[in-house]
Amino acid sequence: MQVFPIFIAIGTGILIAVLGPINSLLQAKAGILGLSSLVHVIGLGVSLLGLALFQQTPLFGAYLSTSQRLALAFFAVCLLLAYAGLVGIGIRQGLPWYSFLGGIIGILVVLGTVFSVRELGIANAIALLLASQVLAAALLQQFGLLGLEASPLSEAKLIGLGVLLLGAVIAIRS
């Protein structure tokens, strides 16, 4: 089994764990619908820019003319600039800069999950995604990172995390 897809799956699981606390920071100021809108605007902007610049598939890339690609890129840049303005407003209201990364992290989670499933198979990918997500979440909470309240790991939780990690290792080795 290749090592690179394993690292992608583990990294994606860590990103999933980080996504919740980051989004909750933004939601505290923007509300749930504001959060959803902001996360999806940045996700759409980055995705459209990537589509305009890099996508070469029969569904999109091969059929987009240069002018269509430029128009798509321009629209994406406009979305991203509007988002940057909102980030500035949020930072002035006391939000940390990283609280606005939810949309970008969401894109990375989608890409990492799709890549991991394709390269490792669904069972192996999910085993690694879940194990790394839960381990990262436990560490974030243990140290009170990203606005979380610190909560020390009990012996029972440590044993559970060890069993989870062992299960993921067994799953990908078989």
Automatic annotation (TrEMBL):
For the keyword Transmembrane helix, the answer is yes
Keywords assigned by UniProt? Membrane, Transmembrane, Transmembrane helix
Q: Which InterPro entries match?
A: YdcZ
| Superkingdom of source | Bacteria
**One GO CC term on file:** plasma membrane
State if Zinc-finger is listed as a keyword.
no
Q: Which segments cross the bilayer? A: 7-26, 32-54, 70-91, 97-115, 122-144, 156-172
What name is this protein filed under? DMT family transporter
Q: What is the lineage of its organism?
A: Bacteria, Thermotogati, Deinococcota, Deinococci, Thermales
